[in-house]
Design goal:
The protein is of the alpha/beta class. It has a single domain, classed as TIM Barrel (Alpha-Beta Barrel). Helices cover about 50% and strands about 20% of the residues. It has twelve helices and ten strands. An eight-stranded mixed β-barrel has the order 1-2-4-5-6-7-8-9, surrounded by six helices. A hairpin with a 3-residue loop joins β2 (about 30-40) and β3. α2 crosses α3 (about 60-85). The longest helix has 23 residues, at about 60-85. It is globular, with a radius of gyration of 18 Å. Bound molecules: guanosine-5'-monophosphate (2 copies), manganese (II) ion and sodium ion (NA). Sodium ion binds near residues 160 and 161. This is EAL domain-containing protein.
Length: about 260
């Protein structure tokens, strides 16, 4: 397929970049984390969304190499931001296919990278990972072992898109996660939809009782921010605080942040 050949070439031709979207502390304020989001600038077709090319990368196995590259980029970048903000963390999306298709050596390399790249070690690894429910559904021993290896190395784990999959609550007991990300579909009509509001409040209470911090995604209005903050949500992400932007623009955002 043409696009998979193009993607193979994109890796070596500097067509892939990592953008960063701010994540703010809902109570103290300020940008304390970022999510790394991959972008592909195709030479003829312009920007191609990860929604379109990640599935191809997964299907062909290219996601292993691409994922490794994103992880290293994000780690190096997070290390730079840690010079002025020692607790700063960048979270990286990790596809289930990366877990299935990669071996022990691959993980050891990731974990070693965390020690050598990523800036001052004081606050633990500068990168955390985001996984989805589909990975937890597989729940075989090797996936569990790989997740445990990350956590033993101090890498925090977020459950992304919470509430959109099967959301079997038993996963939350079985896996020892650090963050739960409320999917943006719950946030977008928070001010109009009392049921969504009730769900967000209940998710936050449940997560806190289980010892997880909560990140709400897709916050676009001050009203949504205020409702989530009142409900005790720990962190917020969305266009209200900033879109995904290149690292040099993120630098400026961090320097000018209050
Ligand atoms: O920012 P955006 O609309 O482009 O992201 C679309 C989707 O692509 C999101 O679900 C996001 O998790 C996914 N995505 C973005 N970057 C990466 C990446 O580096 N790895 C993986 N596996 N998924 C990514
Ligand atoms: O699936 P994941 O949560 O990793 O991807 C997050 C996606 O949401 C990215 O595509 C990102 O660009 C997008 N996004 C981030 N903030 C907002 C927002 O406030 N509104 C909307 N509509 N999309 C957002
Ligand atoms: Mn994500
Ligand atoms: Na999400």
């Amino acid at each position: 397929m043409a696009i998979s050949n193009d993607l193979r070439r994109a890796i070596g031709n500097d067509q892939l970049t990592v953008f960063y979207q701010p994540i703010v502390d809902m109570h103290a304020g300020g940008i304390v984390k970022a999510e790394a989001l991959l972008r592909w600038q195709h030479p003829e077709n312009g920007e191609i969304s990860p929604v379109d090319f990640i599935p191809i990368a997964e299907h062909t196995g290219m996601i292993v190499g691409i994922g490794n590259w994103v992880f290293q980029r994000a780690l190096q970048q997070a290390g730079e931001w840690r010079i002025t903000q020692p607790d700063f963390t960048v979270s990286v999306n990790v596809s289930p296919v990366q877990f299935y298709r990669s071996n022990e050596a691959y993980y050891r390399e990731w974990l070693n990278n965390c020690k050598t790249l990523g800036g001052p070690p004081g606050a633990g690894p500068a990168v955390s990972i985001e996984i989805t429910e589909s990975l937890m559904m597989a729940s075989d021993e090797t996936v569990m072992d790989k997740l445990a290896a990350f956590q033993n190395a101090g890498i925090k784990i977020s459950l992304d898109d919470f509430g959109t999959g099967y959301s079997s609550l038993s996963y939350l007991r079985k896996f020892n996660l650090d963050y739960l990300k409320i999917d943006q579909s719950f946030v977008h009509n928070l001010e109009q939809d009392t049921a969504n509001c009730a769900l967000c409040e209940a998710i936050i209470v449940m997560a806190h009782k289980l010892g997880l911090k909560v990140i709400a995604e897709g916050i676009e209005t001050p009203g949504q921010r205020d409702m989530l903050a009142r409900a005790g949500c720990d962190y917020g992400q969305g266009y209200l605080f900033g879109q995904p932007i290149p690292a040099d623009q993120f630098d400026v955002l961090l320097k000018n942040a209050p």
